[in-house]
Amino acid sequence: MALICHSHKIETNLLTKQPLGDMVIETGFKSSQYARIMKKMTIANIAELVGVSKATVSRVLNGYPHVRPEVRERVQRMIEETGFQPNNVARLLASDRSNMIGLIIPTGPHEVFTDPYFPVLTQGISQVANQNDQTLALFLVGSEQEVLDTIHKVIATGLLDGLIVTADIRDHLFIPQLSECGLPFVMIGRPTDPDGINFIDVDNLGGAFMATEHLIKLGYHRIGTVTAEENAPSLDRFEGYQQALKQYDLPFYPELAAIGDYSLQSGYDAAMKLIPHRPEAIFVASDTMALGTLRALKEAGLRVPEDVGVVGFDDLPPAVQADPQLTTIRQPIKRIGQMAVETLIENIADPDRPLRQVYLPNELIVRASCGARRLSQAEL
Question: What pLDDT, on the 0 to 100 scale, is given for residue 67?
Fold first, then answer.
């Protein structure tokens, strides 16, 4: 399995390739070039002109054998006459699949390489890609324009057989383009509008409910949260926290909810906003933010769990290195990546396969930060 890493700088006009070991970093894609390309014919236009379905046009574009010769000929003729993505068509009609899939992570390189979540996720993705002789192209994109430019480039060049995209609150901007072009893709994390989209996720709502319920059963009442608004799974975790409070007839205090962005620093900043309101416990929507929360509590002179209990979400490797060790919700991050590739490969082979929308189960991992062990020892 080879890895190609793409990092985009929109202000650069020329496409440059800089070898770095086994990795090639591509920078500088002009959005105006892709805008002109995207104004050309679409798959829907071709399908309407020929009188076939979009799925049939997609199968012809991707070289699938199960298309009647006369239909294939009509589609190819129309593609040639309209000039629909000629580079893509020429490649796909002249050869087999590229055996290259893409992974788009809508966040900057700094976040990807400092958040322990992404190495675990990409390990699962690369493992299955390697087993299936797939080259993995990694696209790290931060701004909204970079996301759109990357999607345009992937569609226009036709170098990839399919895409995996991690969930992002801006997914409504690019999912319609991916659906329209016929390129197989799978989302990691529930998209904002999941209708007709393949995705692999965990039960974020149920996991957050489990974490908050655990704190409630330990006797905490003023339970705060450090949440996020990065994507639909983030919103699900906040909803699970609120549902647990409601089910146990505990009030939701708006001042006990602070928003982060999954980074350690945001967890620290959010906790600092909560501390003056004296929470008894805090559910944090990611382990990375929880580590920042632990640091904030320590700097404020508060002991964990004696003064404030803390529960995270992820069960990343640093959770057991924290002081105290972090109680958290374990999600099968590596398995999520593996299933995403498996689903994508199946979808590439058969575009008409049934939709796959998976919620994997979570597990509560009890360590010292919630106070459960201290409570158990006191009861003894």
Answer: 82
What is the value of pTM for the model shown? 0.74
Q: If you ran DSSP here, which 8-state letter would residue 246 be given?
A: H
**Burial classification of residue 177, based on how many CB atoms lie within 10 Å of its CB (0-12 exposed, 13-18 middle, 19 or more buried):** middle
| Torsion angles phi and psi, residue 312, rounded to 5 | -105, -165
**CA geometry: angle at 120 spanning 118 and 125, to 5°?**
90
The burial class, CB within 10 Å (0-12 / 13-18 / 19+), for 9 is exposed
pLDDT tens digits for 242-291?
Answer: 999 999 999 999 999 999 999 999 999 999 999 999 999 999 999 999 99
Query: What ranges make up the beta strands (E) of 183-306?
Result: 185-188, 199-202, 223-228, 257-260, 281-284
Below-50 pLDDT ranges, the chain: 1-2, 7-39, 86-95, 377-380
Beta strand pairing call for 223-228 and 185-188: unpaired
Reported as a single tens digit per residue, the pLDDT across 142-198 is: 777 888 888 888 877 778 999 999 988 778 778 888 888 888 999 999 998 899 999
User: Helix 333-349 vs helix 117-131: angle between axes, to the nearest 10 degrees?
Assistant: 40
Task: Tell me the CA distances in angstroms from 2 to 129, 171, 236, 340, one per residue in order.
Answer: 9, 27, 35, 18
CATH numbers and ranges of domains, the chain: 3-201+350-358 (3.40.50.2300), 204-331+363-379 (3.40.50.2300)
Number of Cβ atoms within 10 Å of the Cβ of 66? 8
Whole-number Å distance between alpha carbons of 293 and 153: 39
